[in-house]
Design goal:
This protein has two domains: 137 residues, no CATH class; 149 residues, DD-peptidase/beta-lactamase superfamily (Beta-lactamase, 3-Layer(aba) Sandwich), CATH 3.40.710. The protein is α+β, with helices and mostly antiparallel strands and 324 residues long. The protein contains ten helices and eleven strands. The chain has a five-stranded antiparallel beta sheet, with helices on both faces. It has a two-stranded antiparallel sheet with strand order 3-6. Strands 4-5 form a two-stranded antiparallel ribbon.
């Protein structure tokens, strides 16, 4: 593990077989253990539903929570943070119109999109669609229109990965639909830190919604992370992801109880599992879990499978929203 992660001792063994968060008694034990880690400086590996978990304190680089942080797994739409960085590094004209082409349509997973083929959209709005609402056609068009085309884009991504020291990462296309786009939680923390240095990326990923001009008509799009804009959540960067191979994934940089941290959750079995893990992390940092539970709806768009018993824990008071 790199010098950023220097606390390998785990106070609680990781349980990759656990599908549901603990009950209240177990949560109390978990919080007590977390308090001990603050004193001892060791990393916590608790009973989280996500298969890989890493939480790093931004100001010190201290690992607060770690579980399978070096497992190499598919990363789905977390890829789009890398896509955005490479595009912005090239300093292309953000006002230039990009025409969505039929080659941008997802023929691998057949994911849906409200961005029609033939639409002409400013590059800045295409970035907004790719990052905020995780639109795959938008992300594909960014790679296609990169100077030099898809091969030049892929070479730029490879160079960026090397520059960031992401030694366990491989990305072959801009959307994250390919299961060959793989990384580790440890590498993705590095990517999140780098992405947070781009004002366009932090602004876009922390927008709860936006209206984009599509063929002369304003269309409202929402952030795929429903914690963004929720009461009590101070989020500086966000990106969700989902494919069947990757499960539900999440990157966030958050502030809670005066502490700044970057969290990575990979391969959660359900959107509600991922949401509960994020709320647990925020509470462990000292945030108010009750406020977190009032999110508009936790991680709703990337898949339909939800374990009802867990959903009841995290979404009892949540309002449904139309899927897009």
């Amino acid at each position: 593990m790199s010098s950023l992660f220097q606390h390998p001792l785990r106070l609680i063994p990781a349980r990759p077989d656990i599908e549901h968060p603990p009950d209240k008694a177990h949560m109390k034990k978990l919080f007590a253990t977390f308090a001990l880690t603050i004193v001892t400086g060791t990393a916590l590996a608790g009973p989280f539903g996500s298969q890989s978990v890493l939480v790093v304190e931004d100001d010190t680089g201290k690992v607060l929570i770690e579980k399978n942080a070096n497992a190499i797994v598919p990363i789905a739409s977390l890829t789009k943070l890398m896509t955005a960085m490479v595009v912005l590094d090239k300093k292309q004209d953000l006002d230039e119109q990009i025409s969505i082409d039929k080659v941008d349509v997802d023929m691998l997973k057949h994911s849906t999109s409200r961005v029609p083929v033939g639409a002409s959209i400013a590059r800045r709005d295409v970035l907004q669609l790719a990052l905020m609402s995780s639109d795959n056609r938008a992300a594909a068009s960014l790679g296609r229109t990169y100077p030099g085309g898809a091969e030049a884009f892929k070479a730029a991504v490879k160079a960026k990965i090397a520059a960031l020291g992401m030694t366990q990462t491989s990305i072959e296309e801009p959307t994250g639909l390919s299961p060959n786009n793989k990384s580790t939680a440890a590498d993705l923390v590095k990517m999140a830190v780098a992405a947070s240095n781009y004002p366009e990326i932090t602004r876009i990923t922390t927008d709860a919604k936006d209206i984009i001009n599509i063929n002369g008509r304003g269309v409202e799009y929402h952030n795929t992370n429903r914690f963004v804009g929720a009461k009590g959540w101070d989020i500086g960067l966000s990106k969700t992801g989902y494919t069947q191979e990757a499960g539900r994934c999440l990157i966030m940089r958050i502030k809670a109880a005066g502490k700044n941290a970057t969290l990575v959750l990979l391969n959660a079995g359900a959107s509600s599992t991922r949401a509960f893990d994020a709320m647990s992390i925020r509470r462990l940092m000292g945030g108010d879990e009750a406020q977190g539970a009032r999110v508009a709806r936790a991680q709703p768009r990337e898949g339909r499978t939800v374990k009802v018993s867990l959903r009841a824990r995290v979404a009892k008071h949540l309002k449904p929203r139309r899927r897009t």
